[in-house]
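Listing S7. Sequence submitted for prediction.
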Amino acid sequence: MGITVSGVGREAGTPDTLTLNIGINLERDSVAQATEEAATRATDLREALTAHGVAEVDIQTATYSIYPVYDHRSEARLLIGYRVSNDVRVKIRDVGRAGEIIDAASGRGGDEVVVQGVSFSIEDNEPLVLAARQAAWKDAHGKAEQLARLAGVGLGTPTTITESFSAPPVVQRFADVEAAALSVATPIQAGELDVSATIEVTFGLG
């Protein structure tokens, strides 16, 4: 016998890390041409990132692919070239300079730079977790006290407690971006990120 209630607590914080995929996607007549030019542009892109303060450890290859491109407009399938895609996943820890860094990397990479999306996170969210948990406990305990009063019984000590957390990343999706389109500085708005704690508590009856 007891009273089982759930409590929810939320705490908002400002994201301090931006993660994005950026890379080169180009098509050339031969494998050699495609791989050589993609490698050159990818190197330029990486150098731009590090020159603007992104650490090497925060740049990681995400995808690399080479595949033939065919013309299917006639009955005979004609090989017309090869496409190379080389994307890196980048962490930008200075969110205030994110737009500047993306523009610089895109400018160095050339017209075939692709930005697939960005997401925000909080690198150390432990203070938010603690605050959300405290709010969830207060919510659950308040509900249990009210139910006990309505039932005319005393509220005892907790017998079971379970919890779960949710901290979905703030995600912004962009269409493929060509460097030529970046004549105006790219605006990046981090917004806020919620950490949510949910607990379920069973109290004994006093």
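Caption to Listing S7: primary sequence and predicted structure tokens for the chain studied. The chain has two domains: 1-15+123-176+192-206, 17-121. The longest strand covers residues 78-92.
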